[in-house]
Amino acid sequence: MSAQVIDGEAIAAEIKEQIKSDIAALGKELHLHAVLAGDDFGAKFYAGGQQKGCEEVGIHYSLDQLPDDASQDDLAAHIRKLNDDPDCTGIICLMPVPKGVDGRALQQMIDPSKDVEGMHPSNMGKLFYNDTTFAPCTPKGCVELIKRVGCEVEGANVTVIGHSEIVGKPIAMLMLGLNATTTIVHVFTDDIVPHCKNADILISAAGAAGAKWNGYKRKAKKDPSTPLPDISPLVKADMIKPGAVVIDVAINRVPKGFDEDGKPIKSKKSGKDLMVTRGDVEYDKAIEVASHITPVPGGVGPMTVAMLLQNTVNAAKAAQ
Ligand code: NAD
User: Is 0.70 topped by the overall pTM?
Assistant: First the structure.
């Protein structure tokens, strides 16, 4: 058996078409503001994806760039201004924030009806009541993918790997809301294997290999004798129940391979370590076991932006 590959790009494109019609029906301008202090590459990269998505569907996007040394008060004042601005539909507080600034406190200041990333405790709490108007984008995207492949969630055994606030916990809550029998495993779970093998739907959001590689690099800088970590996929094919739906949320940036000395293979062009992006799942073998599987990249990733756009439309509807 070879699994059906879930094409996140294609599904996200369909959703964006629907969003365009929703915006036309609303008959008003939508404006998303992303607040950033500093020059973090990852945050700017993420903002670039948001901007592109907004342009595709006709939402105005502003990257509100504050200085590197912006204080808690500076950022709070800016968020307050956006909360009060009737022309601002949605607000994103990009992470990381500068040292000494409490990013979570800033997210909690965003007006919940403009909290398009679904990070405000009020919106997180609403997940308990199955109100997903402002559910966090990546978890919401996972649910959308599962629904679109026609998989029956009610009564299914779902295992979620990872219990972070932004991904694992909200995914589990959304799955409970759909009446799945839901198990969360994490780094303190004694043995994740039986829980994975029992899953009709397996959702992995650990990012284990990437975290290990980054940890290794930090340690090896101080101590070059640090042993190489095991960055093989966390979810091996034999941990997957035959016919399961597998959703791989993780984004691991890891070396493509190692030379005889155990050093990452270098790119001939740039001379830098040759890196690849992969998920948690042993994709090449898992594809022979699962019924449906998301690739990395091209699975969950495009859905995150699509759900951000959908939440922005929800914010505009709520403001009417
Ligand atoms: P996190 O580091 O906050 O949480 C990781 C979770 O995985 C923790 O609950 C931890 O206990 C668990 N975990 C780690 N190693 C494990 C192991 N060996 N066994 C079992 N559990 C383990 O990360 P996060 O923010 O939740 O993100 C998780 C992954 O998803 C990352 O790779 C991240 O890049 C990716 N991500 C992707 C998208 C997307 O749009 N596709 C969005 C957000 C996050």
Answer: yes
